[in-house]
């Protein structure tokens, strides 16, 4: 996303392809900057509620780097570096939980990268350090892990299930070998099928499968065929992701060498088939009985309702541990630096490995959220998922109505992208389909400028 996205009106943006940027967090890490002086974590968290926190551990390693991936990840690191990383991550976890003081985690996730790039013993060490330092019972807490097909072996998955992991998310992207090759992903369907069978054999309550639409050569027919292949395994969740070709990713470098424009969002509408693919996939999943939670997420009717303490992403804190992980307090978001290119990721990782353990008790890179940004974050986090933005809850939190604080929200109603009453504002089906336009449109000019000025490496 660029600063230009913050200035046009919504009606103007609707004339562009729907896929401008994925607003999975706000503000994006490209808006972060060094914090000077560094802030003690104990002070940052002292005034925060710490009884319903989310603990996220980041494992930035993979077997290979997919062509579309812009996550903070490094493919095929040397074994010694992985060992150093686990040691340093334990030091950070210890320093972080000490700074939190009395606390309770009610959600847990192990992401990456690919956490199951680690071997079974290394995974066992990670779960042990969590139990040792964090106030959490993994067996009684919703806990998820991300895996890739080639790393989903029985020994690793058994360790995860025994530790208390109840949700496994696996990126399939496509069941077509030709489409997967277009994504620069060396994956074969037989490996995918074997991985799913292994996951099911370990009896994880929730299996999520990720699929991508907008792949070169993909058609509605081939996309629906991949969805049907996924449905044959009865996943509790399915995510449908539009393909973005971002700078410095494998696909982005291929496009740059070919002299192509950098990204689908700059193409003319007739050349962008993603909306048609999305609508076909959405309708197919709805017909299969799935419920749509967001533009990307669909939940099966047989998905279990796991009883657990309530966690609210709009108000409860996130504690990230590991290089690339983010943490959120009410007024400050912080993390390590962000990069995409292998050289940049490697440099940031080396900096993390060289840190003095005492430095982990401080936040030195991030962004402070003023009142306007806190309101915007709440609106974006609420509006882009169902059931939508609870206006009564907004009034309780911020002392005003959301339509008064952000008058631009009225445009959603005028353009039939949202509907509601005095207590709720929810996107219509058309609005949900435009989530990747609406999210960037709600970004403040200040954040858009910081993102635009960020020098991505």
Q: What would you call the quaternary organization?
A: single chain
Q: How many strands?
A: 18
Give the amount of beta strand, in percent.
15-25%
Q: What is the mean predicted local confidence, pLDDT?
A: 90
Strand order of the largest sheet: 10-11-9-8-7-6-5-2-12
User: Span between N and C termini?
Assistant: 16 Å
Task: Identify the overall geometry.
Answer: globular
Tell me the structural class.
alpha/beta
In the CATH hierarchy, the architecture of the largest domain is Alpha-Beta Horseshoe
GO cellular component, one term: cytoplasm
GO molecular function: 4 iron, 4 sulfur cluster binding; catalytic activity; metal ion binding
InterPro entries: Aldolase_TIM, Coproporphyrinogen-III_oxidase, Elp3/MiaA/NifB-like_rSAM, rSAM, rSAM_sf
Protein name: Radical SAM superfamily protein
Polypeptide structure, described:
Strand 10 (291-292) and strand 11 form a beta hairpin. The protein contains 18 helices and 18 strands. The chain has helices spanning 10-13, 41-46, 79-100, 120-133, 154-163, 177-182, 189-201, 220-231, 250-258, 274-287, 342-353, 371-383, 391-398, 402-405, 409-414, 429-433, 435-441, 445-453, and strands spanning 33-40, 53-59, 61-62, 74-75, 105-112, 143-147, 167-173, 206-213, 237-242, 291-292, 297-299, 318-321, 326-328, 332-335, 362-368, 389-390, 418-420, 424-427. With 457 residues, the chain is an alpha/beta fold. It folds into two domains: 1-27 and 370-457, Arc Repressor Mutant, subunit A (Orthogonal Bundle), CATH 1.10.10; 31-299, tm_1862 like domain (pyruvate-formate lyase- activating enzyme, Alpha-Beta Horseshoe). It is globular and about 55 Å long. The strands form four sheets. Strands 10-11-9-8-7-6-5-2-12 form a nine-stranded mixed β-sheet. Strands 1-15-14-13 form a four-stranded antiparallel β-sheet. A three-stranded antiparallel β-sheet has the order 16-18-17. Helix 8 (220-231) packs parallel to helix 10.
């Amino acid at each position: 996303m660029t600063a230009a996205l913050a200035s046009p009106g919504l009606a103007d943006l609707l004339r562009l392809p729907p896929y401008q940027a994925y607003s999975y967090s706000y503000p994006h890490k490209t808006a972060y900057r060094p914090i000077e002086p560094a802030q003690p974590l104990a002070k940052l968290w002292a005034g925060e509620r710490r009884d319903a926190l989310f603990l996220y551990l980041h494992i930035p390693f993979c077997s290979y780097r997919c062509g579309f991936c812009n996550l903070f990840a490094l493919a095929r690191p040397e074994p010694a570096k992985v060992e150093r990383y686990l040691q340093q991550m334990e030091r950070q976890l210890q320093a972080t939980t000490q700074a939190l003081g009395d606390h309770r985690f009610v959600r847990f996730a192990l992401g990456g990268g690919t956490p199951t790039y680690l071997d079974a013993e290394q995974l066992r060490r990670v779960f042990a350090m969590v139990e040792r330092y964090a106030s959490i019972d993994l067996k009684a807490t919703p806990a998820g892990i991300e895996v890739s097909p080639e790393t989903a072996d029985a020994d690793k998955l058994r360790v995860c299930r025994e530790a208390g992991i109840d949700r496994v998310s696996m990126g399939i992207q496509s069941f077509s070998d030709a489409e997967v090759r277009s994504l620069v992903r060396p994956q074969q369907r037989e490996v995918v099928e074997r991985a799913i069978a292994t996951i099911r054999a370990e009896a994880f309550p929730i299996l999520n499968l990720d699929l991508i639409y907008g792949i070169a050569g993909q058609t509605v027919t081939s996309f629906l065929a991949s969805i049907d292949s996924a449905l044959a395994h009865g996943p509790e969740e399915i995510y449908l992701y539009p393909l973005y070709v971002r700078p410095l990713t494998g696909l982005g470098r291929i496009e740059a060498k070919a002299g192509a424009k950098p990204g689908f969002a700059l193409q003319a509408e007739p050349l962008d088939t993603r909306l048609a693919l999305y609508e076909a996939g959405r309708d197919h999943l709805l017909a299969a009985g799935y419920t749509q939670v967001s533009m990307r997420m669909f939940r099966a009717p047989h998905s279990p309702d796991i009883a657990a303490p309530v966690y609210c992403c709009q108000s409860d804190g996130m504690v990230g541990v590991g290089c690339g992980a983010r943490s959120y307090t009410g007024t400050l978001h912080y993390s390590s630096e962000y990069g995409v290119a292998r050289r940049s990721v490697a440099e940031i990782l080396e900096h993390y490995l060289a840190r003095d353990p005492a430095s982990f008790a401080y936040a030195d890179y991030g962004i402070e959220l003023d009142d306007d940004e806190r309101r915007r974050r709440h609106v974006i986090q609420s509006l882009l998922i169902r059931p939508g933005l609870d206006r009564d809850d907004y009034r309780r939190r911020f002392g005003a109505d959301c339509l008064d604080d952000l008058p631009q929200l009225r445009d959603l109603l005028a353009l039939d992208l949202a509907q509601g009453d005095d207590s709720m504002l929810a996107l219509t089906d058309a609005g949900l389909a435009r989530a990747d336009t609406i999210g960037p449109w709600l970004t403040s000019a200040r954040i858009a400028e910081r993102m635009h000025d960020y020098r991505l490496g």
